[in-house]
Inverse folding.
């Protein structure tokens, strides 16, 4: 089986959760006997260090003309050849010219394709008019014509069906993680690097972008700061335009020494931060299924999350606290979580068990293989029938 994974932005920082999902899925599928994986992406962040774990994957990196709009320097023959060689095409995300070009080529060649929007179908943030135009020209048809669609959580299914998709064509395949990547622990080292000393802290790990809700979290933390005077808030993530606003908000609440903006962290530093934190906060205004909840679970650190993250089963099932996507709602959940260390430990253990039971990439990769085989089954049967007829002549 030859699988073509398509994801425009694979940068370890700017690629977000969809980039990480595609990265880990490509690694997992390439370890399966009889599966050949090609990754088609822009050259954003594809350094030798980033490519080294993808040693078993053929990577086609197209030059990027615009990082904001993820515009590729297109050589049509390269996309045509990549699609021609594939048995099944897997499109990750939604709002990219690369996905649209591969979709057009897959339709032209009659190749089956699967799409995983990963919660990106909602028109949110910048360039709304451009996104509406994209939907009209190609986006809606790309979703409707997919032979199968992957939802990361059940909450995503209603959004897909608004595009006219038959629910029987939708398969839920959640996010996963490489569990071994989150075993490293160095509490003292993490606290030193994060600047919190020996103070307990709440961790936010994500882009400083309105959709991720860091402003909601900071307002919520301000509401409980007097009640928990020893606790700090660490905001770790790439600044996407909110850094100044958040720093000003922190100062307005008199929290300059207790709110730390540390930028992007990854690798062993990220693992150590999860282990050292009292609590992870996921204040997103909208998200399909945050990968960081699984990363936190691998470290047995419980979570406070909004009810807009597709985490009702994970967090609401005992791995943490769910809250409305408001400063007031998050403040109530933070207060309840910070009040009781024993309850935090108990919920962290539940989240650890939940993560280890079914969210390793070996398990999630197997679900993708099963789906791709189902997609290819009619073609395989047709090919075998033709071969039998030919041999009988």
């Amino acid at each position: 089986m030859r699988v073509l994974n398509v994801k425009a932005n694979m940068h370890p920082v700017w690629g977000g959760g969809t980039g990480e999902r595609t990265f880990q899925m490509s690694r997992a599928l390439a370890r399966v006997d009889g599966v050949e994986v090609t990754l088609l992406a822009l050259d954003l962040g594809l350094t030798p260090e980033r490519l080294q774990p993808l040693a078993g994957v053929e990577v086609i990196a197209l030059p990027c003309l615009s990082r904001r709009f993820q515009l590729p320097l297109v050589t049509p023959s390269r996309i045509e050849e990549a699609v021609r060689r594939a048995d099944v095409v897997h499109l990750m995300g939604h709002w990219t010219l690369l996905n649209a070009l591969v979709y057009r080529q897959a339709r032209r060649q009659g190749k089956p394709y699967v799409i995983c929007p990963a919660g990106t179908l909602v028109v949110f943030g910048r360039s709304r008019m451009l996104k509406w135009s994209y939907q009209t020209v190609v986006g809606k048809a790309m979703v409707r014509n997919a032979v199968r669609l992957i939802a990361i959580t059940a909450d995503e299914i209603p959004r897909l069906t608004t595009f006219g998709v038959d629910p029987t064509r939708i398969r839920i395949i959640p996010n996963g993680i490489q569990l071994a990547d989150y075993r490293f622990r160095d509490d003292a080292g993490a606290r030193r690097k994060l600047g919190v000393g020996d103070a307990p802290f709440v961790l936010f790990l994500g882009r400083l972008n309105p959709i991720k809700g860091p402003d909601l979290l900071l307002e919520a933390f301000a509401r409980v700061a007097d009640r928990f005077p020893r606790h700090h808030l660490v905001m770790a993530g790439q600044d996407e335009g909110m850094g100044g606003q958040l720093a000003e908000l922190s100062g307005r609440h008199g929290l300059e020494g207790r709110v730390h903006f540390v930028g992007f962290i990854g690798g062993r530093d990220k693992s150590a931060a999860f282990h050292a934190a009292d609590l992870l906060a996921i204040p997103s205004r909208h998200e399909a299924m945050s990968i960081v909840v699984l990363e936190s679970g691998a470290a047995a650190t419980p979570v406070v999350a909004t009810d807009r993250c597709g985490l009702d089963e994970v967090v609401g099932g005992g791995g943490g606290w769910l809250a409305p996507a408001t400063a007031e709602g998050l403040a109530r959940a933070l207060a309840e979580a910070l009040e009781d260390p024993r309850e935090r430990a108990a919920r962290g253990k539940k989240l650890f068990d939940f993560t280890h039971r079914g969210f390793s990439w070996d398990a999630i990769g197997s679900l993708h293989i099963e789906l791709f085989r189902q997609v290819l089954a009619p073609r395989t049967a047709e090919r075998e029938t033709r071969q039998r007829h030919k041999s009988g002549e």
Summary: The chain has a mean pLDDT of 91. The first strand starts at residue 2 and ends at 6.
